[in-house]
């Protein structure tokens, strides 16, 4: 290791001014979102759960596309892609293993229906499906269980969100909600 290697930090006193070998993509706009989560605001921790509130409002206002007996499907307010759905139990439960058999069975069936509907209306090529369990695992609303169903298309990933701080969503949420809700089987 050469003495003049600028990628090696030799002192914590001047580490902030010394470059290292990592490339960084700074996203300071995420700080407000993370800090609100620490306080519980809008995260379901202090009687302010958006997933408990949504079923009590009109479907159009809550972006709900389908309602079942134990769970419902709604569009993500901050979608990764067009048609990004969340499948949520009505009951306020935080972890998958705390859900009842009826809730998990209906979540599974509604996820399959969501995939079929999204393929029909959005013509997607694939899906990301998953749950983040707990805040440490990345759950934005850790207090209320929800499963993501994210439609994907060939070549839909790019650096537009990182470089331009912009996400290209080609359809208004209300229009997407209407298309998915209309195509959802009764």
Give the tags:
single chain; 186 residues; alpha+beta; HIT family, subunit A; five-stranded antiparallel sheet; 6 helices; 5 strands; globular
Concise synopsis of the structure shown:
This protein has 186 residues and is α+β, with helices and mostly antiparallel strands. The protein has helices at 30-39, 50-53, 59-62, 101-122, 160-163, 173-183, and strands spanning 64-67, 71-75, 85-89, 126-130, 147-152.
Would you write up a description of this structure?
The protein is of the alpha+beta class. It has one domain (49-183): HIT family, subunit A (2-Layer Sandwich), CATH 3.30.428.10. 30% of the residues lie in helices and 13% in strands. It has six helices and five strands, in the order H-H-H-E-E-E-H-E-E-H-H. It has a five-stranded antiparallel β-sheet with strand order 1-2-3-5-4. It is globular, with a radius of gyration of 20 Å. The mean pLDDT is 81.
Tell me the layout of helices and strands.
Blueprint: H1 30-39, H2 50-53, H3 59-62, E1 64-67, E2 71-75, E3 85-89, H4 101-122, E4 126-130, E5 147-152, H5 160-163, H6 173-183
Antiparallel strand pairs: 1-2, 2-3, 3-5, 4-5
Percentage of residues in DSSP E strands? 5-15%
Instruction: Name the structural class.
Output: alpha+beta
- Physical arrangement of strands within the biggest beta sheet: 1-2-3-5-4
The CATH C-level name is Alpha Beta
The rough form would be described as globular
Secondary-structure element pattern, one letter each: HHHEEEHEEHH
| Known CATH architecture | 2-Layer Sandwich
Which spans have pLDDT < 50 for at least 5 consecutive residues? none
Roughly how much helix do the residues carry, as a percent range? 25-40%
Overall mean pLDDT stands at 81
């Amino acid at each position: 290791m050469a003495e003049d290697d600028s990628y090696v930090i030799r002192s914590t006193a001047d580490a902030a001014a010394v470059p290292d070998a990592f490339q960084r993509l700074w996203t300071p706009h995420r700080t407000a979102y993370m800090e609100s989560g620490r306080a519980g605001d809008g995260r379901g921790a202090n009687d302010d759960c958006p997933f408990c509130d949504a079923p009590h409002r009109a479907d159009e206002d809550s972006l709900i596309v389908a309602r079942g007996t134990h769970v419902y499907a709604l569009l993500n307010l901050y979608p990764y892609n067009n048609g990004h759905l969340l499948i949520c139990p009505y009951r306020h439960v935080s972890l998958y293993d705390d859900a009842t058999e009826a809730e998990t069975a209906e979540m599974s069936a509604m996820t399959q229906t969501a995939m079929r509907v999204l393929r029909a209306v959005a013509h997607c090529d694939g899906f990301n499906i998953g749950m983040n369990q707990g805040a440490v695992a990345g759950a934005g609303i850790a207090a209320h269980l929800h499963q993501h169903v994210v439609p994907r298309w060939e070549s839909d990933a790019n650096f537009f969100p990182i470089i331009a701080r912009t996400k290209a969503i080609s359809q208004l949420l209300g229009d997407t909600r209407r298309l998915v809700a209309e195509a959802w089987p009764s």
